[in-house]
Amino acid sequence: MKKYTTWLLTASVFQLIAALMHATTLFGNVPPNNETEKQMFTLMDTYQFDFGAGFHPTMGNLLLALSACFSLVYSLGGLLNWFLLRKKISSEIMRGVININLLIFGVTFALFATFTFLVPIVLAGMVLLFLILSRLTIAGSSG
Fold first, then answer.
1. What is the structure's pLDDT at 118?
2. I need a labelling partner for 73 at 20 to 30 A (CA). Which of 26, 66, 88, 122 fits?
3. pLDDT for the residue 142
């Protein structure tokens, strides 16, 4: 069986791929296919909620922030894992880092599987799979 570093590096690569793929969607717009979608897109970009204290975001603003956070969380996970692997820190600390990754990206996978579509589900699933493999293989390593 491969060492945990191989699995964690693979998870890190998939985290960065997921972040980059999603970041590209922040810069493009999908045209509406029919009148219902056109009306929905118009409302998403023009109707402003009144959240008090001078905050009046549109649903489009809220979705943009949420999408940016997705890219940032996956970037943080991927870059942090890659950095810690390069520094060759102890497997005891890496075990804890992997456990934190499993918690965060496991919940993310569950949310994506419930509320999104195939591409983010597959990418989040690949990240989770390789994190699980790294956790299983680090359990047997000494150090």
1. 97
2. 88
3. 53
Prediction pTM value: 0.89
Q: How far is residue 54 from each of residues 20, 25, 50, 51, 66, measured CA to CA in Å?
A: 33, 29, 8, 7, 20
Could you list the residue range(s) of the whole structural domain that residue 133 is in? Answer: 4-29+66-140
Residue carrying the six token digits 């994190």: 131
What backbone phi and psi angles, to 5 degrees, belong to 58? -90, 165
Residue pair 108/73 in contact by the 8 Å Cβ criterion: yes
**Whole-angstrom distance, CA of residue 13 vs CA of residue 42:** 37
Q: Rounded to an integer, what distance in angstroms lies between the CA atom of residue 123 and that of residue 88? A: 26
Question: What span, in angstroms and rounded, lies between the C-alpha atoms of 79 and 71?
Answer: 12
19 token code pair: 């972040």
Q: DSSP label at 48?
A: B
Q: What is the per-residue pLDDT for 141?
A: 59
